Amino acid sequence: QVQLLESGPGLVKPSETLSLTCSVSGDSVSSGGFFWNWIRQPPGRGLEWIGYVSHTGSTNYNPSLKSRVTISIDTSKSQFSLSLSSVIAADTAVYYCARASRRWGASGPGWFDPWGQGTLVTVSS
Amino acid sequence: IVLTQSPGTLSLSPGERATLSCRATQSISSSYLAWYQQKPGQAPSLLIYGASTRATGIPDRFSGRGSGTDFTLTISRLEPEDFAVYYCQQSGSLPLTFGGGTKVEIK
Hints:
The structure holds two protein chains of two kinds. By secondary structure, chain A is an all-beta fold.
């Protein structure tokens, strides 16, 4: 079955760039019909969608983070990555990668399944 | 689209029925509403998509319904493993959004 696994530094200094990678096994990120997403969850709080990349490399970001976010895909490694610049303490969260199926009867992502296990990133000097 | 879940916390005993609400600030096609379960220290997992279709392996005590702006997740008889936080999520328009969650706790 499809499995996703996040990797990257657990500690990032304020004003620096957070970089995470999601490795996908059991499926190919180049297969059509899916969108590859990043979602985050601050400690004790709810879920926030960050954005997605498709197998073609097209992206869409949450407007709340758009100026600081880049999501890219590497089909040769079956990976996709998140870059979040100029981080502040409020960016401290568990970061999840997740696959989204295409919406029924329309373009764009629908529901998220599966999810990676998540990785905690703390922003602190 | 903002999703508001209520109640914030639901205190129930095993065997009881749980009814969770998710209300949207604008109408969503029922095809674009999903529910997730999250246990402590774990990633969320998909329960229901298309408002009422159970994901693979989800027992039939979980059911979803709704349309327009009002959606409901029902757990017919709570099992010990069902005590968790539940989130709704919409994909009717970008940005994709989640509700704030409902915690189902043991009374």
